[in-house]
Design a protein that fits this description.
Blueprint (H helix, E strand, L loop, with lengths): L6 E4 L6 H8 L5 E4 L5 H9 L4 E4 L7 H5 L6 E4 L9 H6 L3 E4 L5 H16 L2 H9 L17 E5 L3 H12 L3 E5 L5 H6 L3 E2 L3 H7 L2 E4 L13 H6 L4 E5 L8 H10 L2 E6 L18 E3 L8 H20 L9
The structure holds D-malate (MLT).
């Protein structure tokens, strides 16, 4: 029996439950809590002999980083999206990748709705105006959500959670998801449409819930915006890069898009870009999953999953 004591490196800032769960394991792994290391320093640390690496979205797990980690057996992504991990490189090196996809569903769905209300009722503009001493009752005309059509691009866990909430608001929900059969979309509360074009043609609100992959990068580009209804609201809480930001800005300026709620950006942080500072954009700094409850659940899920991987036990959320 091997006597090696596992070393697990926490490379991003994570909820303290990760450390607690890992340290409570009978194998007593050594937990190295070192968020924010620069890539070279992280590589050097991994080279010292790390068996498990846990990251959030800041750390990029590249092929070069994996090459620096000869003892690494598993990368845990504390969250859903794995676009910051080179999955092919991990596969080629026999390093497992696991994530925690179920823990943040409610938080992200609630934030999506928060952005939708904020855009539809111009909450951020109203708040900024009042704080600056303005009473802009007449100017701040909004739109109602009841009776409008929500178009979900992607009807996975989060899309389905948004669908349930939107139905409770009296919205009609349609969905497009090439990875699911029509019956699954119906079960998740969305009327299936044949393709993205059909969804864009009827949605008053378009909300994106797909990961960033080579197939989805720029999915909502100039052609997609040209198909949307005039006055549409666009929501992005999944991953930057799925919505083409130049195309969105052009559509805001032309008036085709009434407003947008964005939590994710092609480059993070984006800085005060024309899109972020646009008066009809409500922008938040990738906080959709940032609730006490969600982060605690993520921490517990990923710690258990990484321990299971190190033990060679069956995994709930194997990505690679
Ligand atoms: C995720 O992929 O789970 C989210 O983007 C949450 C995050 O890490 O901020």
């Amino acid at each position: 029996m091997s006597t090696t004591r596992w070393r697990v490196l926490l490379a991003d800032r994570l909820h303290p439950r990760v450390r607690e769960v890992l340290q409570a394991a009978p194998e007593k792994p050594l937990v190295l809590d070192e968020p924010g290391l620069a890539p070279d320093a992280l590589a050097a640390r991994l080279a010292e002999g790390v068996h498990g690496l846990i990251v959030r979205s800041r750390t990029r797990v590249t092929a070069a980083l994996l090459d620096a980690a000869p003892h690494l057996r598993v990368v845990g992504r504390a969250g859903v999206g794995v676009d910051n991990i080179d999955l092919d490189a991990a596969r080629a090196r026999g390093v497992g990748v696991v994530n925690a996809p179920a823990a943040t569903t409610d938080a992200v769905a609630e934030h999506t709705l928060a952005l939708l209300f904020a855009v539809a009722r111009r909450i951020a503009e109203a708040d900024a105006g009042l704080k600056a001493g303005r009473w802009e009752k007449k100017r701040l005309m909004g739109v109602e959500l009841a009776g409008r059509t929500l178009g979900l691009v992607g009807v996975g866990r989060i899309g389905a959670a948004v669908a349930r909430r939107a139905a409770a608001l009296g919205m009609r929900v349609v969905g497009y998801d090439p990875h699911l059969p029509p019956a699954a979309l119906r079960e998740r509360g969305a009327t299936p449409v044949e393709n993205l074009e059909a969804l864009l043609a009827q949605a008053d609100v378009v909300s994106v819930h797909v990961p960033l992959t080579p197939e989805t990068r720029g999915l909502l580009g100039p052609a997609a915006f040209a198909r949307m209804k005039k006055g549409v609201i666009v929501l992005g809480t999944a991953r930057g890069g799925v919505i083409d930001e130049d195309a969105l800005l052009a559509a805001l300026e032309s008036g085709r898009v009434r407003g947008a709620g964005l939590d994710v950006f092609a480059q993070e942080p984006p800085g005060p870009t024309p899109l972020v500072t646009h008066p009809r954009v409500v922008a938040t700094p990738h906080i959709a999953a940032q609730t006490e409850e969600a982060q605690r659940r993520v921490a517990e899920d990923i710690a258990h999953e990484v321990l299971a991987a190190l033990r060679g036990q069956p995994l709930r959320w194997r990505v690679v």
